[in-house]
Structure formats: structure tokens, C-alpha cells
Protein 1
Amino acid sequence: MEGKKIFWLVGEASGDLHASLVMRALNAELPGLQHIGIGGTRMQAEGLKSLFPFARFNVMGFVEVLRHLGFFLKVQNRVKRLLKDERPDLAILVDYPGLNLRIAALADELRVPVLYFICPQFWAWKHERVHKLRASVKHVACILPFEKELLDIHNVSATYVGHPIAEEVSLELSREEFAVFYGLDPAKQWLGFLPGSRDVEIRRMLPVFLEAARLFDPDRFEFLFSKARTVNHFLYMDLLHSSSLQRSCIIDGYHYEMMKYCDFIVSTSGTATLETAFIGTPLVICYKASPISYQLGKHFIRVKHIGLPNIILDDDILPELIQSGLTPTAVKDAVLGILDDPARLAEIKQQLSLLRTILAEKRTSEQMLNLVKNLLGIEV
């Protein structure tokens, strides 16, 4: 495979993780592949030659993207030159549709075939994106089971490849070992908070979560707060120290263990909600954006639910607290309303078991390997 070159574009930490899993499988099966483009530390560890600092892409929301428009135009121009000058054999674009759909169009113009991994959520909002996929993308690799059927309706070539978290989730510590490592009381119930992986999420969500934790009985609960490596350490710790929460435990590693061993999770909407649901821990899904971003999004969003577990199950099995509905008191009521209701708790756990079965139906790395080999003209 010496000389075959793949261009990658990933803009978020979750995409970096998902893509690195695929890269590992490709490198094992097809040694000699060259990887160039945009990605994080996990992809770089698998051999990606990255063009820009990955942290620059960690923005979200209408207003936030507008503030960084100059940077994204620079990225687009640099990628266009690369596609024209180096002519990669394949472009694999991962999620991040605001930029990646524009790059797909550029690649198509330059006759570089495009594999779109993790389909843009056109079924939720910006429905016109499905037409862009049909116009510019050779094939779409879907990670949600209902997406292929929707793409088939619009004559977009697609394959359901399973969800990568089925391969990514793994545990290194038992509950007892985790408790010792972080100094937790194993006799208490553990309440975990996942405020997000971006600084803008931390600013909006962490103060609400800290205030919510104050409303719970500290004799009953241990309070665990996840701290992603992608967030600013000083920002996170300043917010933590400015709160009046007497006792909390910062989890800056072993996040899957935290999701597994907590009795309940309070999570910002995103990949973490699906990971937690896949692991089987009940949770409440929280979302808060800037007022302008929220009003614009509210106008266009088509789906009944905002949380991926609820969307996949097509049910409001998990509580969702959105914008003005996200208050410390609402968090407390949602958590205790489930933990103190054994029948409802059992029903949620049963539904999360079904979700796990759905997402683990296929191995994403194997499915993606076959798609890439096919697009590179290699016999599968």
C-alpha cells in the first residue's frame, strides 16, 4: 500500500477518538498508508500528519463559529491547495458538517472520492445537507441505525457501520479499585456530573451542576465531576473553587469507570450521553446554548428529543433539561425522581440494555476497513 494517501478532517475530540479506531484497523491491514489532514492526538498517534493545531477547531454554536470565521476560511484554502497539489486517493471526512460539507464539495470538484464517516444530522435540522451529501460524497458511513434508510430515500449511497463506542468503551478498574484511587466512600451513592469537553460548555454547565450538587444530601451521595483533558484547567478549577460545594471529587481519567460505577449521571448533551447510556447508567441530559444560538437552533430543529439515546430509542425515556428548564432544582428533581422510584429506574435500565444491543450490532472498524478498501480499489 506504499504511496496510497488518505486525507482526514476531524474537528472534535469524539471524532478524533472514533477516527483513530478506524486508522488503527487500516494501518494493521494496509501497512504503508499515508495519513494527512486535521485531527487530534489520538489520530496523530496512529500516524496522521496534522496541518493545524487541533484545539482551534473546538468551537460550537452559530455565534461562536462566526467569531472564528477567518480561521475557518484559512483552513478551507489550505485544504483546497493540499487536495489540488497532493491528490490524495481518498478523503475521509468525520462529522463536523459546517466545514466538512464544504470540503466535500472541493474534493469532488478535484475528483478526490469522499467517504463521509458519521453522517451529518440532517434528519434533525438543516435538511438541505442531504442534497449536499448526494452531490459531493461517494459514500456515507452511518453510525446511527435509522440513518441509512433515510439516506436511501434520497439516493445517497450509505452503509450502517455500527457505533464506534461499542469498541471504544473498556474498563480498567473495578468499583472498589476506582473508589480507592479517588478516595470515594463505597457505601454512598455516587452522583456524577459530565459538564462537557469544551471551554464554552464548562462556562455554561459547570456552575449549574455545582449549584445542583449543593442541593443533594452529602451524607447520601458522593459528588464526582468529570474534567476532560480538552478543557482549560484554570477555567475549570476557578469555577470549582468559586462554588460553595463542600466536597467533590474531580475525575480527570477513567471516565468510563465513572460512567459505569456512578448510580446516576447528569450530563451535557453530546457523545457522553450515548456512552453513559451504552454503559447502562441512568442519566439526565442537559443542554444550554447562548440565547442567540438557541433561538436560531430552536427555529430549525425538527426532532422531538435532543439527546441521542432518546432519539435512537424514539422515546423520552431519559429526562431532558433544556435552556431555561436547566436549573439546579430541576436537576435535583430529575435525579431523585428516578433514583427514588424503583419501577422507573428498572424500566430505564431495561431500555438502556436494548440501546446497547442496537449499537453493538456491527463492529465499526471492520465495516470501515471494508469500505475504505473498496473505495481504494482493493479487493475485499
Protein 2
Amino acid sequence: MTIPRVHHGVAAARGPLLFLDGTRRAVMGEWAEIETEEGRSLRGQVIEAGREVTVVQVLEETLGLAPGDVEVTLTGRLATAAVGREMLGRVFSGNGVPLDDLPEPAGAESRPLSGRPMNPVRRDRPSDFIETGISVIDGMNTLVRGQKLPVFSGPGLPGLELAARVVEGARIPGDRPFAVIFVALGITERETRRFLDRFRGSDVMTRTTLFLNRAADPTIERLLAPRHALSLAEHLAFDEGMEVLVVSADITHYCEALREISAAREEMPGRRGFPGHMYTDLASLFERAGVVEGRDGSLTQMPVLTMPNDDITHPVPDLTGYITEGQIVLGRELHRRGLFPPVDVLPSLSRLMNAGVGEEKTVADHRAWADQLYAVYSRGRDARETAAIVGEGGLPDEDRRALEFADRFEEAFVHQGEERRTVEESVEIGWGLLRDLPRDDLGRIDDEVWSRHGEGRDRSGAGRTEREDEP
């Protein structure tokens, strides 16, 4: 890197951005130190290094900053994040500053804030299961280590609550070291206090790190918080050999901050005012997940985002869906009925599920079981729409049974309230629901699978020797 260069005054200031003239040796991503006449010391980062003009992004509040009275030092050092195993159990701001009244982590190392690109040739295929304790995820949209599986929420839906439940309930089989990093973006003070009280009072805090960016914090911090978290996650996963799950919410707030910065830079807007480079920016976050061939550890991401007006074609969920491997979609109708988590099974999908399920990873015949539940539930949802027109009495017998199944499935399987379920418990609930149906209605399960799980059992799943139609 180059030696530090001092600039007295800036050409212009716009929001969190400072524009410097004559900085030909500026380097993309280097740290900047800003001093004001009042003695304030601010931090910044070069986000555009040009021959004539360099743009410095100020990482703190810029209200009252006078362009002609500031002194900007381009330090020549790249932006880094503190990382280390001792950061587990701690709480930090989006800038990586401790919020738990404890000192800076002793002996923490530094890692580039932008991460180290993963060699695509060395990427290994994700294939190991992460248990979240949520039946709809573990059973039908399984999360796999190294995967990127977002949650698509909507205004007023409990996306944050689901994220918190995953942080508390996530487990991995075996005795591998496991860590969870939770990144809150643009949350309110009340939500901040609730998360702190909730996690500090639980036994999962010892393997959890929190990065909390509040709505009142500078906008630019919202862009840094996930990068601090992912830098720590990369260190724990690929240097320490741990299995790491990063849960971030709300990515929509991150994208809105990106739009605000883009407007301040007077960039040409794209769809709905979001910058045209938003896809690349989101990819720079999500693609840091993965598994490296020949090395222990993995980095898994579960970002939560809010779809404005429940519009899944909005740029934020649309672009997120292109980068990630599936989506968990929350349904408003299920939420209105008081079901938690209100996951809508039909549009939800985990594209890597097949790699993470099976007898040696979850339970035997997991895929066949999930396919059959999906098929009957889908038919029941179609029957529910038809019944609204012709009445339930106008449905064929099989459709009536599917309709009844859909109601029971949502109440007994999707809804679990405060309960945490193991994957075995979730699967047994599903088999119990399927056993209430005639064998002819279960076309996705072959006779061999049915003989192991369906025949010779009563509706509660306990063993029986006679069939229900026998005396």
C-alpha cells in the first residue's frame, strides 16, 4: 500500500460522502481518517478511486460537517475487521465496536472487510444437514451447511422472530464446533433491547456473536455490519474449522441504504430507484458462503428480507432469489390465523435439500416423505379454492380428504408455537398425518417405503398389529 496522504478540505460533501480532488494515488477500499475543526475524529473508506475525484464514504454521522474545514488522511491501509474466537458471546455495533461494556477483543486478528474470494475450483458441494428446530424447514426445505437459504417475509410478518428462533434452535449432528452469528440491520431500539435480553438470557450466547445496527445509526453502518459479521464467520469457518451459520435481518434495510448512498453519488438508478449494481453488491455478501474442498468448517447463510407489499417480484427478493439456493416464504393468511411460523410450503424451496437428507444425515426415506406431504397438501390447497366456489359438498371424495389433510397439516405440522422439534419428531408428525389417508391417496410413496412407515401403525404412530378396518 501507499504512504498516508493528507488533504486539507474537500471539494464537496453530500450525505455520508466526501469528494476529494487530485488524489491520483488513492486505492479502492483504503481507510480514511477525517478530522474536523471541532476536534471530531471520523472514520471513512474510499469507495471510488478516480484520477480526478475520489469518493470517501464516512462511517459515522456527518451532520454539520463543513467541507472546507476538514482534514482527510488517506492512510494507505485496506479496511479490515477484527476477528477471533474470543468474539463469541459478545455484542458489537455494525462498525464492530463493542456494545456489551467490555473492552476490544484481546488478541483479535484482522481480516479484509471485503473478504477473500473463494476459488470456485476449490468449492465443495454442500451436503450436511443443519437442524433449525423448525419442522417446515427441517422436514420440507432442509438447510444444508454451506447453503444460502433466504427467508422472504412481508410487512407485519414475523420474519425477525423466525430469525431469532433459528439462532436459538440451530444445531448440527455430531460433536463438530458450531457458531451462530446474528446480524440485525436497521432495527428499532425496542427490538435491540428485546434481542439483547433474549439472547443474553439463553445458553446459546456462548456460541453466538451479535452485530446490531439500529435504525438511528448512520446509514453507512448498515452496509458494513454484514461485512464485519461475514469476515468473522470466514475466520471461524476456514481458519478455525468451525461450522458457522450467519443469520441476517433485514436485507431490505441494507438495500435501502445502498439506494440512499447511490442517490448521494448521483448514480443512474435502476429498477424502482435501486442502483444497477445491487445484484453484484448482494452477490458479494451471499457468495461468501460455502464449503472449501479439503478443509474443515463451513459458512452457511440465512438472510431475512421483507417484500414490500408482499411482492415477490420486487427487486430485493427477485435479485436475492437469483443468487441464493431457494427461499422460505412466509404466508400472510397463515399469520392471520395465528400459526407460527407462518411458512407457506408451496412457494418455499431448498434447492440443496436432496444433498442434506437421507438415512445417514436426517431420517430414512426423508425425500419420499416430503414429496408425499407436498403432493397431498398441494391438492388440498387446490380443493380449498374450488370449495370456495362450489362448496365442499361438490368436491370428489379424494379432494375432500385432501382438503381435510391441508387443514390438519397446517395446524399440526406447520404450526408449532414456542416448541422446538427435532427432525425425527417433525418427520413422525408428518407420517402420522399420512397414515390417516387411504393408501390409494399416497401415490408418491412406493409399497416398500409404506411397509416401513405406514402399515401396522395407528394414527398416533404407535405400533399396531391389525389394520383399522379389521375387527
